[in-house]
Amino acid sequence: MYYPFLRARQFELIALRELAIENVTQGVIIPILEPVKETHNNLTLAHKVLVEKGQTAYLIVNPNIGELEGDSNFYLDYLNSLESEVFKLAFHYRNSPENNSNYIRESIANYNLNDCMLICQNDIQDTDENFRILAQSDSITSFNVVDPGRNRSFNKYISGLNKTYIRLDDLFEKQARSSDFLDISEHRFSEEHLYFDGEGYQGFSDYTVLPSEYVDGGSTPRAVAIHLTYLNGQNQIWIRHFTSETNDSIANVQGKFAEAAAKAVNYCRQNRLTNSAISELESYYDKEHYPGLGTVKKISIKNHLLVISQFLKNR
Amino acid sequence: MKYDINQLRDYSSLFLRNEVLSWLKSDFTSVNFKIERYDENWLKINKSTYLDYLKYVYSILAVNYQNEYIFKNEFLNKWLISELGEDNSKVFSEFRVGNSVADLAMFNGYSKIFEIKTKFDSDSRLPLQLENYKRAFNQIYLIIPESKISFYKKYDKQIGLITFNSNSDNSFELNRKAVINLEIDPIAMLNILHSTEYKSIVKNYFGDIPKMTSFSQFKICSELILEIPQNELNKLFIAEIKNRGINEALSSRYHKEFNQLFLALKMNRNKKNKMIDLLKTPIQF
What we know:
By secondary structure, chain A is α/β, with parallel strands linked by helices. Chain A is built from 10 helices and 11 strands.
């Protein structure tokens, strides 16, 4: 199972909605959503579609970032009001600024929760009693651990619990400026889909083709980059960063998109790469229509999830 | 009273964008830190609100630590707001011009830039900034401390100079008027405009927009805009930018300590009132 870690923002959620409607993610992909805004209209909209289409997702109720950073009841109450069956709960387990195991235990008790996920950094001691009590509770059924190879004893402890164990890798290398992608040639992106189950994990997780770091807002970019992943001959996932050429000012973002899209579309056509995300990009390109940067991001996310979904379904 | 420089620096961090975002969430942690660190005595005498405290801190900074926030805010209050009142004019903080970002840009009959150089700033970026601004704006003013006047006078004679006197009551004085430049570079102007704005200029001048796609619109509109006489284009440009954004609610009378924050955060009257209401919370630890 693949667990893409995404921020619950408009275009991320649209990507998930569209993929669920296509019936390509069900059974092989379970997204983990971290809310970053207090308003949750987009989330409620996505929830409706996911319910209709039977697509499960995890919602983090105590985000590490954004407007509602920290341990609160806000999203617990929200989920309660949805009476959701497709949204499962995920908690960040934190040691700093202070240990939050009490918050997690109380939330589980007060809201009568089960089938929850703990998202853990790899700095947790396997001897941490607070953690052990939680980890052994029946309400916690899966663990998502950041780069678990960095903490052997913790890794061993989690493996021994016989619960769902997912590794979270930070794969996308963000550049200081989008225009820096211009000089980066295609490169290997991920092989976790090939090896996760052989190495004792029930699933793998990453931030898709987005940086793990969260930045709110942002100004007009000097370059447009379309990040497309694909399987190479050995089934490794590779990535290409199709980047605009005229990046000396912020003017004409539409023209920059045209440049980046031309490269991407040519490459996909030459190499016979097709899926619904690529078709959408081709259609914008052929109609000379600029869909906005949110849609560019959506296409990159969808393509990556489609690549993995196709692989997991056909293996 | 003499204040330690670190205390003043610490105080000045209260007038940052991120602070306002915390206040709007009723989070006054960092304000509480400052009170605890420096002003428990003040609090004993003045059992009052966060708004009172921030105004108190501002009054100290205004006299003792004229960093960019204070400088800009005082300039807004003592100079720009009265000019703004005149007619339908518009002011922007941090206005992007080519590869530079102007401190304040104002649009009434002319387009004007006000670039602030406090005594803490170097002039290393100034030549490039001036080059960028001159391509698209009619008047450029530098706002500088009085003590630096001879240093900045050597720059371009067309640039206006406004001095800031920190020894008196933070007053501003016009030292040299900016020469009005109507030789505007249409390409520089295009780089400032959003796509809806340059399309609107084409429509306003030619009465119609030719058939184009989002890929070709920049090229087609650029070619047309190059045909518009400079004088006309300057007017169309100013009119277009004036439509941009919200109507700020700046007042030189009420809560003038926060004007620059209102402007930087593009706050309308509602948001501004909301922030002030939240700041009226009594101080509590």
